[in-house]
């Protein structure tokens, strides 16, 4: 009996040791433990660009919050498509995210040769910011309102030019949508980047522009350029004296240079929700709000499904413009 009792005790001990070993070997919960290593935050444009500075502001706050590095990785090229493609093909574990802009919805609407589908291969985490454009002009154009600009352009077809940061850019489409909705023809002149447009206007190479108030305001205050309206859906606290284009004479006209954060469509929803909760908290922090306000941006923080819906609606809007206006881009 004693031998049996001893054997029984040894068996129980062995079972306990085995169970303990199995428990310790069980894999960690990837959602509960997220993030337990550095997160790669792709910015698909060059250092210093709006997407880059926005990504860095968010990444720093996330690093502080999580105690894990969030590393901004500038993967430029192909109008921002390379960085998005890397994100679509990355290991779908939530450790690769990407900041996109409204320009990516334009690309998806106009370029059938993209290596990814923005609505099928990727999923939204949140819209991070909203940024309106200002509609501005050279002082030699004798107008003081959107209605007067439209009337002048109708009376002088092809006489006015508008500058943009490049063919197929959001600035280009902002101008073409203005043309189409107003029934006018202001000629598009593309430049290599938005930084080149204002000097071109100061030299009177172009007479109309669509750009950030942050970039235009110094010239507006110095009376070198005149701002007529903003492209937002409603007036902005940053410039309450400026009407929207819609209220100033072109009903329904809205252009938003938004930024948002995406990841692979295969990333589990619980991890996406965890990312959204953290980023939404970052976007509410006073120093981030102040930092974005300096650029004229407003933090947003929509839910993942809301951002997905917004991306789809933006792509549809630009596809409709290309078709209805008969735009030739390639």
Can you put this structure into words, describing what you see?
The chain is of the alpha/beta class and 330 residues long. It folds into two domains: 39-130 and 257-324, 3-Layer(aba) Sandwich (D-Maltodextrin-Binding Protein, domain 2); 134-255, D-Maltodextrin-Binding Protein, domain 2 (3-Layer(aba) Sandwich), CATH 3.40.190.10. The chain is built from twelve helices and eleven strands. Strands 2-1-3-10-4-11 form a six-stranded mixed sheet. Strands 7-6-8-5-9 form a five-stranded mixed sheet, sandwiched between helices. Helix 6 crosses helix 12 (304-325). The chain is globular, with a radius of gyration of 26 Å. The model has no long low-confidence stretch (mean pLDDT 91).
The helix-strand sequence is HEHEHEHEEHEHEHEHEHEHHEH
Distance between the termini: 91 Å
Strand order of the largest sheet: 2-1-3-10-4-11
CATH topology of the largest domain: D-Maltodextrin-Binding Protein, domain 2
Beta strand %? 15-25%
Oligomer: single chain
Helix content: 40-55%
Can you tell me the residue ranges where pLDDT is under 50 for at least 5 consecutive residues? none
The figure for the number of domains is 2
Largest sheet: 6 strands, mixed
CATH class type of the largest domain: Alpha Beta
Q: Number of helical segments?
A: 12
Round the mean pLDDT to the nearest integer and report it: 91
The assigned CATH architecture of the largest domain is 3-Layer(aba) Sandwich
Structural class of the helices, strands and pairings?
Answer: alpha/beta
E-strand count: 11
**What is the CATH homology-level superfamily of the largest domain?**
Bordetella uptake gene, domain 1
- What's the gyration radius in Å? 26 Å
Shape: globular
